[in-house]
């Protein structure tokens, strides 16, 4: 099987140790179903053009230039050679800056995954030393490189005989969690609710297996394309069942397989409450015999509750 084409080649370096490496994309976005825009009447694929809104005429590629908007409809024009003169030149070096514990980087910073491998047989020994050293120390490396004309920080970790590199997002690209979580009330769940939640989590424990992930959108679209090619009706999705409004405790008990106490409904709009146990009928009494014997003081069996 031929080797995939490398996205980048350079040297992985720490101190005086360096080795030639190749970076390969780990994610294959090209495998996804893609659509083109067609003319409904002719079936021809439509060509995209950039139109000047003032003149209404298309603009040739040579006349297109980048511009940074400083105020509404006011731009600073940036020529291609001007941009190229200020952005850093790649020195083809993936320079390791530090080693940190494996779990110290929040996954919210992860961007794109890559495979990192020796670029040639001469780099095998140095590559193995670095890989095994990280695996033994249970650390990952933070490295910096100019990738695709941008300075990027990468997290590098050992994986099998190779290394996996994740480009990391910059701090300014990540929204503070406080913006999303600030309005969530601080509730402390205790008692049966927490016990049921723990039980559900315990019974649902598993292992990470991406082979079990199902891309239902891709599968549905592929089936639709096949059906139209074969001239048969496509299988339509089933309408989702209406969600039932249930009490939180009821839902937890049902999920945990626990039995809930019987409930009775109140008037419209009211909340359901636990049904009170029906009172048992009193045993029929008979006329006391005309004797001097003491009456039986034992309770009827129907009243006796089993312990526990």
Describe the structure.
The protein is an alpha+beta fold and 308 residues long. A hairpin with a 2-residue loop joins β8 (150-159) and β9 (162-168). The protein starts with 7 loop residues before the first strand and ends in a 34-residue tail after the last strand. It has a seven-stranded mixed β-barrel. A two-stranded antiparallel sheet has the order 3-4. A two-stranded antiparallel sheet has the order 10-11. The protein contains six helices and eleven strands. 9% of the residues are buried. The model is unreliable at 264-308 (pLDDT under 50).
Which whole number gives the mean pLDDT? 81
Query: What letter string, H or E per element, gives the SSE order?
Result: EEEEHEEHEEEHHHHEE
How many angstroms separate the termini? 68 Å
Number of helices: 6
Strand content: 15-25%
Shape: extended
Secondary structure topology:
Layout: E1 8-14, E2 17-25, E3 66-71, E4 74-78, H1 80-86, E5 93-101, E6 110-118, H2 124-137, E7 139-147, E8 150-159, E9 162-168, H3 177-181, H4 191-203, H5 216-230, H6 248-256, E10 263-264, E11 273-274
Parallel strand pairs: 1-5
Antiparallel strand pairs: 1-2, 2-6, 3-4, 5-7, 6-9, 7-8, 8-9, 10-11
Helix pairs in contact: 4-6
